């Protein structure tokens, strides 16, 4: 088997006595769209921050293309954080220029094309843009990098259905050949259609992983419903 | 071309059904070259991997043919396409008949209904 794009080996993370991630073992391949699905507080964002080297695991190891996560993995991974990080004083155009200087693998032509397609005004200041427009811009900046792994943390948080469709379209048509996309969300019904694989996470543990269409076939229902059923069972065993 | 999906069934199976229908009804004419996997995925608003899976299935069913360098084409075997169309018609009629049976309507009554509809046309 070829080297996984991303691998977690016995990864745990705790803050003091509180265990946030409990012995995560995963191997993620190239060329797939993967849903990291869980409720708020399940451990999704912590897992993503570990993958982006923003936090260190308490124990275990994370590998990107066979190498331990570190500064060099930032070239391979394009990360969309949950919270906005844009400089509000810059215009759309200036923001793109800033990113092009910051990232070697940034495709300015692609960014400009997407700005046009998503109907943003290049001369508008970020501070004058609505929340939905800012989210579109952030997604453009991430998807315009020629990365191998795109990690999108809650990319649909608080956008209207029309913007949601634009965002899903942009993800689908811009993930480069052979690259993978991890989409972390609790809004499963909104994105399940575009997923190849799913990872269910709850209370810091992986509950289920698998091919989305196979799971639909086996359970005869949607990923959203499988998730709700799995989670319900989990609550019951805890009682 | 319209694609709509039900999240409770595998997406690639629904894609196969949509594409089969578009092929036998001539939306994709016999012998014609299909758009690329990526373009088809973008038209249907699905993951390119899911589209690839559906196309592989259509190839297994001999509705499309891959030419190594030129891409994918709709079969030009018109006789085969016509048989597929008749097969779909049979399946739909079968489904209709079992629904009518559930309603407690006999075949004779169905024929009477159909004839009365025809007279009104």
Q: Which key terms come to mind for this protein?
A:
heterodimer; A: 239 residues; alpha/beta; Rossmann fold; 10 strands; globular; B: 121 residues; mainly alpha; Arc Repressor Mutant, subunit A; 2 strands; 61% helix; elongated
Describe the structure.
The complex is a heterodimer of chains A (239) and B (121). Chain A has 239 residues and is α/β, with parallel strands linked by helices. Chain A has one domain: Rossmann fold, CATH 3.40.50. In chain A, 35% of the residues lie in helices and 26% in strands. Chain A has a six-stranded mixed beta sheet with strand order 6-7-8-3-9-10, with helices on both faces. Chain A has a four-stranded antiparallel beta sheet with strand order 2-1-4-5, covered by helices on one side. In chain A, helix 2 runs antiparallel to helix 3. Chain B is mostly helical. Helices cover 61% and strands 7% of the residues of chain B. A two-stranded antiparallel ribbon of chain B has the order 1-2. In chain B, a hairpin with a 3-residue loop joins strand 1 and strand 2. Chain B is elongated, with a radius of gyration of 18 Å. The mean pLDDT of chain B is 91. At the A-B interface, helix 5, helix 7 and helix 8 of A face helix 1, helix 2 and helix 3 of B.
């Amino acid at each position: 088997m070829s080297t996984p794009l991303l691998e977690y080996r016995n990864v745990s993370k705790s803050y003091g006595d509180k265990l946030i991630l409990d012995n995560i073992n995963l191997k993620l391949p190239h060329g797939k769209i993967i849903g990291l699905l869980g409720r708020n507080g399940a451990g999704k964002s912590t897992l993503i921050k570990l993958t982006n080297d923003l936090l260190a695991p308490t124990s275990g190891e994370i590998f990107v293309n066979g190498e331990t996560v570190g500064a060099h993995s930032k070239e391979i991974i394009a990360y969309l954080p949950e919270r906005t990080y844009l400089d509000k004083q810059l215009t759309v155009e200036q923001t793109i220029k800033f990113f092009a200087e910051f990232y070697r693998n940034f495709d300015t032509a692609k960014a400009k094309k997407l700005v046009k397609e998503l109907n943003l005004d290049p001369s508008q200041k970020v501070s004058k843009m609505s929340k939905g427009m800012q989210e579109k811009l952030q997604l453009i900046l991430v998807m315009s990098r020629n990365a191998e792994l795109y990690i999108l943390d809650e990319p649909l948080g608080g956008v209207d259905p029309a913007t949601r469709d634009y965002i899903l379209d942009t993800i689908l048509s811009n993930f480069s050949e052979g690259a993978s996309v991890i989409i972390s969300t609790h809004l499963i019904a909104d994105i399940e259609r575009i997923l190849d694989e799913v990872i269910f996470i709850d209370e810091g543990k992986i509950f289920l992983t698998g091919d989305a269409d196979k799971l639909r076939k086996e359970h005869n229902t949607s990923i959203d419903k499988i998730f709700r059923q799995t989670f319900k069972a989990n609550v019951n065993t805890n009682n | 071309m319209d694609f709509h999906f039900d999240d409770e069934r595998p997406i690639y199976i629904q894609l196969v059904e949509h594409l089969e229908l578009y092929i036998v009804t001539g939306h994709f004419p016999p012998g014609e070259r299909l758009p690329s996997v990526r373009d088809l995925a973008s038209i249907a608003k699905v993951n390119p991997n899911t589209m690839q899976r559906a196309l592989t299935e259509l190839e297994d069913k001999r509705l499309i043919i891959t030419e190594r360098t030129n891409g994918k084409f709709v079969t030009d075997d018109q006789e085969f396409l016509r048989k597929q169309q008749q097969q779909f018609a049979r399946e739909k009629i079968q489904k209709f008949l079992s629904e009518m049976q559930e309603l407690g309507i006999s075949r004779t009554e169905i024929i009477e209904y159909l004839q009365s509809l025809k007279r009104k046309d």
